[in-house]
Each structure stands twice: as C-alpha cells, then as structure tokens.
Amino acid sequence: MHRLTVEEFHNSEKLPLTVVLDNVRSQNNIGSVFRTADAFRVEHIALCGICSTPPHREIHKTALGAEDSVAWSYHEDTAECVGDLKARGYRVFAVEQVDDSIKLGMDELPAGVSKVALVFGNEVEGVQESILPLCDGSIEIPQYGTKHSLNVSCAAAIAIWEMWKELAKGVGSL
C-alpha cells in the first residue's frame, strides 16, 4: 500500500473540510479525530476551548503521528473560530441532534456547499448551546437503538466519511 510521507501529506490536495472540536476533553478522542482526519486528508482541525493540544502523550497514543500530518490550530473561543470560518466562506454545521437537522446520509447538503466545517462538542454536553445559532445548520447521525449519542470520535469518523463522499468529488487527487 502506498502511504504518503508527512511531507507528501502536507503538499497534497486536501478535502475542503475543517473539523472543529468544541471543548472535547479526552485526549484519546482528540487523537482519534486526528487519525481519522489524516485518513481522509482533512485540511484542518481547530481545537477550541478546553481541548488539549499536541504535543501530548495521550493524543499521540491514538493519533499515532497524525497530529504531525494534519494542520491544526488552537482557539480559546469557539464562537470566534466559527465566525472566522464563515468569513472565509465555509458552511459551518454543528453535528448535533436538534429540530430541523440534516440527517447524515439521508438528506442532501444545501446546494452550493463546497467548503465545510463540522463542529463536534463535548463528550457529555455536546456542542455549546450558544454555538448552535452561529452555525449554518446542524447535521444529525441517525440512530436506531436505545442510546441517542455516540462517542465524539466515532461520530467524527462517521461524519468525516460522509463528508468525504460528498466533497471528494470536487477534489482532483482524492
């Protein structure tokens, strides 16, 4: 299997997707999101609020070096990060269960969406209530069991995969 070097990854075309982690406390979850982001060549991860940042032993344990390949930044305030992404032309969606959410894999994204940011929230509280109205909408992962939540790193993996299926069509080298 051909695997990119970190340098080749940095120079490769990326999926026009930014992942925003809003107060995700578990370093293992953060590392897992880095690893998934590497697998699908996500262009950026924004770590916001109470999030650990690389280098960190627990992040590295699950990221396995993906924290070196995927571009990332830290933002003290999630609202400012969301505002900046919107100003740069991103459509920002919270991954959250709310009224009128887009059902991932079942509903289509609004027309003309080419640059997306997905906001994932805290392991217990989800995306901050104050962030939801700042987003262009919410995306929900349909669930059919007795539980109505997923681990944040699992939810990120599912949503990133679905975004890859949508957005990779417009990226020549993916």
Q: Bin the helical content.
A: 25-40%
- Give the full name of the CATH homologous superfamily: SPOUT methyltransferase, trefoil knot domain
Distance between the first and last residues' Cα: 15 Å
Shape: globular
**Spatial arrangement of strands, main beta sheet:** 3-2-1-6-4-7-5
Per CATH, which architecture?
A: 3-Layer(aba) Sandwich
H/E element string? HEHEHHEHEEEEH
Low-confidence stretches: none
Mean residue pLDDT: 93
Report strand %.
15-25%
Name of the CATH class: Alpha Beta
Whole-angstrom Rg: 15 Å
Summed up, the helix count is 6
Describe the protein's topology.
Layout: H1 6-11, E1 15-22, H2 27-39, E2 42-48, H3 57-63, H4 66-69, E3 72-75, H5 78-87, E4 91-95, E5 102-103, E6 116-120, E7 137-140, H6 152-167
Parallel strand pairs: 1-2, 1-6, 2-3, 4-6, 4-7, 5-7
Helix pairs in contact: 2-3, 2-6
